[in-house]
Amino acid sequence: MEDEIAIAFVNQVREAFPKSSLRADRLMAKGGFEEEEIEEQYTMWLSAFADITGEEMVAESPSVVEAHFEFFSRAYKSGSKEVRRLVDVDYVENLYWKIPKEVCALYWPTMPKNLQELYVGFHGKPPL
Predict the structure, then answer these.
(1) What are 43-84's pLDDT values in tens digits?
(2) Are 21 and 51 in contact, with CB atoms under 8 Å apart?
(3) CA-CA distances (angstroms) from residue 79 to 17, 29, 71, 84?
């Protein structure tokens, strides 16, 4: 059941963000995953999607980053226990990784409060 919920959630992300999703697929392929394995590796895929959000931060694409943040914030607020775990552990915990501090400072204030709380809950502090 958890796998079905997770795969359905990833499909929602894919529908909402087709370009970013293709980039996450490519990142997974670079990591050695075969195309048919990607769906099964939904936790890794959501981590790759967080990396794509980070790339958008560095590329100075605030509308894309904010759209990602809003989608995941809404999913956390209204999602099942499994969806909330996916948002928390596989997406939020992987945000801001290898992102310069000055870029983090631009995007942290735009991140919804519930996602900020998840991030700080895991990392112990903001990425600034």
Answers:
(1) 889 999 999 999 999 999 899 999 999 999 999 999 999 999
(2) no
(3) 18, 28, 11, 6
